[in-house]
Protein 1
Amino acid sequence: MRRILTVGLGLTFVVAIGFGVFFVRLMMDMGSFLEVEAHFDGTCERYDGFAGGTEDVLIDRETGWVFVSSDDRRAYAADPISPPRGAIEVFRLDNPQAGHINITPDVPHDFHPHGFSMYDDPTGKRLFVINHPTNGTQLIELFDVTYGADGVPSLEYVGSISDPLIVSPNDLVATGLVSFYVGNDYSQRDAGSLRHTLELFLRQNKTNLIYYDGNDARVVADGLTYANGVNVSPDGETLYLAETTDGVIRIYDRDIANGALTQREGPEGVLSFGTGVDNIDIDDQGRVWVAAHPKMFDVQSHMNDADFPSPSQVLLIDPNDQTIAEVYMDTGEFISAAATAAFHDGRMVLGVIFNDQVAVCDVADERVN
């Protein structure tokens, strides 16, 4: 009996030590012990009053209008049956102080936008928007974008796309009038469940990237951990994909004809940052702008308490000269949990996950301009 007790205590001790090592390593990888020092070569102004968290931002560089995907995620979590409706909102990049405009039509009524992407075609512009309706269905909503005589954009609802492979969409990039890549950040849409928690904190490689060619969907990259931001280069031949909990961006060569992806070999195929990389914007020079969360546990704390700061970071990857720079870091006191950094004409727009605000920054950094 004494021997059994001794063995039991020994096993308990080993398990406790193992869990302790795992927990400390997890805390380190999630940036919990990181000392954040704010820096930015430029100036920023913050604008509030959007429909909710401004998760994704894109700039129509031809017209200078900024599009914002906004939804009140705290309200959705508190009341998943009848939360307030989200919106697509716009403002002028050169005049953000003039205010923003909700341009979302009444259809679809149950509208909770997440990642979105605009496709420019000779026949016009089309907006693809991930929608998380309250009934649990995951949809890609399509809108045609037009500009009136006053120059203000408007949206005309085209329809929805769904597929059994699209189970937990986070971000997408359009590649045609009906084709796109979309990343599933979880293997199932089961928010708040133990399964979600385990996938996230154990960093299980159960997520994937889906390609929809206009008729059918298929998996084009799998074995991913929290597939998040996705975008393609201006020539369409390179695809960038962020894995948030692993802190890496995977780079793929893309077959434009059929959408197939081939991950580049060696260090050129995986860029490791050690921070929670989120959405990806690509400017007109082909440079890759990545918003990131250096202290990932703080993101959850910020969700639970709007006054709890979650640091925001922006990384710039320049494929033209193979350089990487950190162009922005904030402790979260000014702007918390930035999910997107979009850049054009010397200005950077930051969108955030939870608060109803964006930041518009004039960038003076000589590495950028």
Protein 2
Amino acid sequence: MASGRVLSFILLLLLSIGAAAAPAAAFPAAAVGAIPYRTLKGMVTAADNHRYLSVPFDLPGGVVRLTVHFSYGGKDRHTAVDMGLFDPQRFRGWSGGARDHLTLSAEEATPGYLAGPLPAGRWRLLLGVPNIRPGTRAPFTAQVFIKRKPGVTSFSDGPLNNDPGWYRGDLHMHSGNSDGKCAAQSGKRVACRVYRTLEAAAARGLDFIAITDHNTTAQAEELRALQPAFDRLLLVPGREITTFFGHANVFGLIDFLDFRMSEPTYAEAAKWMTTAKREGGLVSINHAGVPSGEQCMGCGWNVSGLPPHAVSAVEVVNGGTLAVTGRADNPAQGFALWERLLDRGDHVTGIGGSDNHDADISPDKPAAIGTPTTVVYMRELSVDGLLDGLRSGRVFIDVDGTRDRLLELSAQAGEQHAVMGQTLQLRRDDAARFIVTVKGVASGTAQLVVDGRSIPADRITFDAGHPTAPIIWRSDGKAHWIRADVRDDHGRLLLIGNPIYVVAG
């Protein structure tokens, strides 16, 4: 009798493929794909008070991510509709009225829901109705989004900031999901939970971070749970692929990448590198200049046969190495590999990373979270905005991890204009006017670095009143890469820019 009454009050399930079934403005659909796989609509009435309604939908095989956005009417009359989910075999979770959307994948899920495989078959959205007044009719809509292929993941429904500009962050750190440790109440060293790292990053004033635990993305579930609480700090999916022959960060992905290399060749590295690239992730080689051995097993990059354009970035300054050597330009840093790749024509972005393993390290120490900082010009503060910004090359490294230093390199040649990461076409004897803009450094030296060699004649001393320095450079008709460094009055490297590329016109 009860089920007949529920049906008599019209639980209509309109299953349709396409966006027309629900107003696009109802949900932040851009975060999960503009077109829902299914749109479920129905009506809750007074007869459903204190009852549970099962709203079925069929999931095809091969789904790797499921997202449901839910909304309902009647809230102005104190209607309340709770939400949960069953897969074909088991209960997957319950968020009650606390959330209007949920996401599940094999690796992580919205708080209140269980991560795990997404089996094909009949799923059921479970709706509980703790309150609906007599005479009230409350329409509901659930949009179901799916992904059949792994790809870039975000823990937020949209950009944290829609404005284009410079954003500061740290792209290399570890939590207790691998070997990150920090102090317990007693002072004992324990596995450091993700929230401790996020609190330190927020206190440092960073805009984005990537927690890159070794070969795992177990941190992803905590990051999804914590992203709403850190709504000014973009949490970026990442991991450090850790092999016997070198380490590299992969940003943007959380699905499994097979790190099990048995020899130091690209044929072995391609098992994870090509997969990461195909899925939209970004690969960056870490601490390439560190010798591998018992002090740092597998840390130096010793993989042979790396083809052109296999990686998008190199960690030029590593905070752990900085703590040991005291200098950002020590040979144990990543400059040598970065410049070899640039010399052969790869457009590879130089970045920094603290490699922090202890969220409690004082901010004024090397390897603290945010030391060094990578500063990226982004179209918006989002995961896609970060990846695109890193690939664009309009990036610089702030060795001290300040909040206000700026380095910009631009060039003008006739009608051509370029900034870091872009290209000029120049014939022999063509002149280009390079402008180095520095802010946040009271005094020091800015210089151009051409194909890895600084040009003493082009050193410019600046001060706070004159942050912009023009340099005229004349082409020999060959390909070159040209970037800018900034040093303090004692010669210590403060800011490291990415190249503008010159090709034969």
